[in-house]
Design a protein that fits this description.
The chain is an alpha/beta fold. The chain has one domain (50-375): L-arginine/glycine Amidinotransferase, Chain A (5-stranded Propeller), CATH 3.75.10. It has helices spanning 5-17, 20-24, 68-71, 75-90, 104-111, 127-130, 150-153, 163-171, 199-202, 213-224, 270-284, 333-346, 358-362, 367-370, and strands at residues 38-40, 58-64, 95-99, 116-119, 133-137, 140-145, 175-177, 188-189, 194-198, 228-232, 249-253, 256-261, 294-299, 319-321, 324-328, 351-355, 372-375. The strands form 5 sheets. Strands 1-7-6-5 form a 4-stranded mixed sheet. The protein has a 4-stranded mixed sheet with strand order 4-3-2-17, with helices on both faces. Helix 12 links the parallel strand 15 (324-328) and strand 16 (351-355). The longest helix has 16 residues, at 75-90. The chain starts with a helix and ends in a 9-residue tail after the last strand. 49% of the residues are buried.
């Protein structure tokens, strides 16, 4: 009898966690038939949870199959992009694709045998935001449920609000219920105790009414084991996410930030103003070690042809897989080549793989927005 990748991951997870499941998997009054019981962040074991950097080795990558209710006539194109992305990532590590039961067979045909389809009902494809954010702890890996609420109630999310707990229940991993509302794309960590976030998507009444920046900073530190949070202002109300950090700035290494830089002669918009403010903040900032940040420019494409107003034209929304960096290809040959060169320098030893995801881009997201990594358990006594 063949053993699926998902069964293998379950076995590895249980072995790594030891007795943590019985200690942490207790009901929190928010349990569903799909969900895992949650342990509040404040009740975490001695030593705490810690957010690893994306380059930490992965057990697998999660993706999600988009539904017709959200995408309508664009469904075929965006599904083709997700299938292409899933097949690409599967060349480097196991891929688990969530899909509703009615869509599971079609998703499997599109993605091929190298991708495992997991029957979990979903609304949309943005796995970075709907899925759990995985953390390391003294007993292995757990997942933080960020209480997804459709980016502040902007989109239907009856199924997607349950995705994090469904994933953790399926993987038999402890669920940590965050004491705030957010999405995975709103958080960027260096694996050494530093977080970057945009104020616009967190200090926002559509997610965390009545919470101050100071309140949320304490909650972020407590939940993700951070000792330093770098805040940029961001932009409220101009895109569905209220400006996620993963479309602006990424850590390629501790102390090194890859910054999405507007193309030369780009028109003045709220987003270019937000970039300028963010750059000023990052140039002055220090990380959790007290070190000034090195900023690496990653210029955005200029020659895009006709695109919708919500099209996400930035290379910094790339994904770091085992042995590879999966980056968007926009068709601006000069810009595509320049971006690949920058990422090759930042991630030596990894293959740079450009993938066209124009249909996903028209929905305001990209490769990073569509993926979520399940990290391997940290090595004993590892510092990151």
């Amino acid at each position: 009898m063949d053993i699926s990748r998902r069964q293998t991951l379950r076995t590895a997870a249980v072995a790594a966690l030891g007795g943590a499941l019985s200690a942490c998997g207790t009901p929190d009054g928010d349990r569903t038939s799909q969900g895992a019981g949650a342990v509040p962040a404040a009740a975490r074991p001695a030593g705490g949870w810690r957010l690893p950097d994306e380059a930490h080795p992965h057990e697998a990558t999660y993706l999600s199959w988009p539904g017709r209710r959200i995408w309508g006539p664009d469904t075929a194109g965006v599904r083709a992009d997700i299938a292409r992305l899933a097949r690409t990532v599967a060349e480097f590590e196991p891929v688990l694709l969530l899909a509703g039961e009615r869509d599971a067979k079609a998703a499997q045909r599109a993605c091929g045998s190298g991708v495992e389809v997991v029957p979990v009902p979903v609304d949309d494809l943005w796995m970075r935001d709907t899925g759990p954010v995985f953390v390391h702890g003294p007993d292995g890996v757990a997942g933080v449920d960020l209480n997804f609420n459709g980016w502040g109630g902007k989109q239907e999310h009856g199924r997607d609000r349950l995705v994090a707990r469904a994933v953790l229940s399926d993987a038999r991993l402890p669920r940590i219920k965050a004491p705030f509302v957010s999405e995975g794309g709103a958080l960027e960590g260096d694996g050494r105790g530093t977080l970057m976030v945009a104020e616009s998507s967190l200090v926002n009444d559509n997610r965390n009414p009545g919470s101050s920046r100071e309140d949320l900073e304490r909650a972020l530190q407590d939940t993700f084991g951070a000792t330093k949070v770098i805040w940029v202002k961001g932009v409220k109300g101009k895109d569905i996410t209220d400006y996620h950090i993963d479309a602006l700035a990424r850590f390629s290494a501790p102390g090194v930030v890859v910054l999405s830089t507007p193309a030369a002669h780009a028109p003045r918009t709220p987003f270019t103003a937000a970039y300028e403010q963010a750059r000023e903040v990052l140039e002055r900032a220090v990380d959790a070690r007290g070190k000034r940040l090195e900023i690496v420019d990653l210029p955005e494409p200029a020659d895009l042809g006709r695109r919708g107003k919500d099209f996400l034209a930035c290379y910094v929304n790339y994904y770091v897989a085992n042995g590879a960096v999966i980056m968007p290809r926009f068709g601006d040959r000069k810009a595509d080549s320049r971006a690949a060169a920058v990422l090759r320098e930042q991630y030596p030893g990894r293959k740079i793989v450009p993938v066209p995801v124009d249909n996903i881009g028209e929905g305001g997201g990209g490769i990073h927005c569509s993926t979520q990594q399940l990290p391997k358990a940290a090595r004993p006594h590892a510092t990151g």
